[in-house]
Design brief:
Length: about 375
């Protein structure tokens, strides 16, 4: 099987798992070069993961051998780097969110189509064993027809552990844009595209104090809402209630539950690839744990990139594709827009429900 050469732009906090998996787990990927504004950081990554080249961003984009650019910059850099890659004739996969603005997201989707290139984006956790098993349970009728869902991501922010948490409270940050992509991508992968959103938002604290070691004591001005709540209506009629918050110290809320005409499904943490699945049929008195029936239960970030590499060879559409990422981007913006305008928001984007992975895949393979 041919290895598709990859260039990684951005060697920060999230990059290590991409480097590890794209160099050791998947049979069809090869990290050929990396780049970072901090050249020393790129050099350290190259040494650790045996990456043959450290390039500037311009050099990486100009390298003919690189077919996929993996964009792991902070959210402010997502649009510019993705656009550079597409204009350079590269397929591109970007960390979430696709871009800061919906207009820029739509431009990337349009540009990728014009250039006949693949655009994809994180999260790819929906391709993990946990959520793929949930997808099969729903499609096989174990809970009947989905009628409702809940999705809750609540914590007290990232300033207690992240070394550079400032961007979580800037434009493109906040709980919806940081963690919402995991939850919304999961809901779309399980239920299909959405059509209507209503939301309410709140900025509870105007400033935050960093307590992680690197910048302990630094004060951050909060620019974005840190508590976002509302409802989503999906095309299939399912209504989901969602809360994302950086304002809650502790909670017993579940992460995601899907309620069907014949039972209830408790979905594992969408920020991971495995995790327990609990099912309670309508006539049962208790929940039962369901074994995982797919591969990729461990941290498999990069599986979406490997799927894109597969599609370069087969011509299929990647599962973690640009239309999906852009639809999720619009849903996130719609929560804020609905709150600001005090109106329901009818979505203008849509996407195909991503194809499920096959049963029986060997680790490292996607076909």
């Amino acid at each position: 099987m041919r290895k598709v050469k990859i260039g990684i732009v951005g060697c920060g906090n999230i990059s290590s798992i991409y480097f590890e998996n794209l160099t050791t787990m998947f049979v069809n990927t090869e990290v050929f070069a990396c780049s970072d504004l901090d050249k020393e950081r790129a050099e350290l990554a190259a040494e650790k993961y045996s990456i043959p080249h450290v390039f500037s961003t311009e050099e990486l984009m100009a390298c003919d051998e690189i077919e996929i650019v993996v964009n792991l910059t902070t959210p402010k850099g997502h649009f510019d780097i993705c656009k550079q890659a597409l204009l350079a004739g590269k397929h591109v996969y970007v960390e979430k969110p696709l871009s800061l603005s919906l207009e820029n997201g739509k431009e990337l989707v349009r540009l990728a189509k014009e250039k006949n290139l693949f655009l994809g984006g994180a999260p790819d956790t929906f391709l993990g064993a946990g959520l793929q098993t949930c997808r099969k349970l729903i499609e096989d009728g174990f809970i009947g027809e989905p009628v409702a869902a809940t999705a809750f991501m609540v914590c007290h922010g990232h300033e207690s552990w992240h070394p550079d948490p400032e961007f979580y409270y800037e434009a493109g940050g906040g709980p919806m844009f940081d963690m919402g992509p995991y939850y919304l991508t999961t809901l779309v992968s399980l239920l299909g595209a959405a059509k209507t959103v209503c939301g309410m938002t709140k900025k509870s604290f105007p400033q935050r104090t960093i307590t992680s070691a690197k910048k302990f004591g630094k004060t951050i001005d909060v620019e974005v809402p840190t508590h976002v709540a509302g409802n989503i209506e999906f095309n299939n009629g399912t209504v989901a209630t969602m809360i994302t918050s950086f304002d809650i110290w502790s909670s017993t809320l579940p992460r995601i539950e899907i309620y069907g005409s014949l039972g209830t499904l408790i979905v594992p943490d969408p920020n991971g690839f495995g995790g327990p699945i609990m099912l309670r049929p309508a006539q049962s008195n208790e929940f039962m744990e369901i074994p995982l029936v797919h591969n990729y239960a461990e941290n498999s970030r990069g599986v979406g990139v490997a799927d894109m590499a597969r599609c370069i060879e087969t011509g299929d559409a990647p599962r973690a594709n640009g239309e999906l990422a852009n639809h999720v981007l619009e849903i996130m913006h719609a929560f804020h827009t609905s709150s600001d305008t005090k109106r329901y928001v009818e979505l203008t984007t849509s996407c195909e429900q991503p194809r499920p992975l096959a049963l029986g895949l060997l680790k490292g393979y996607l076909n």
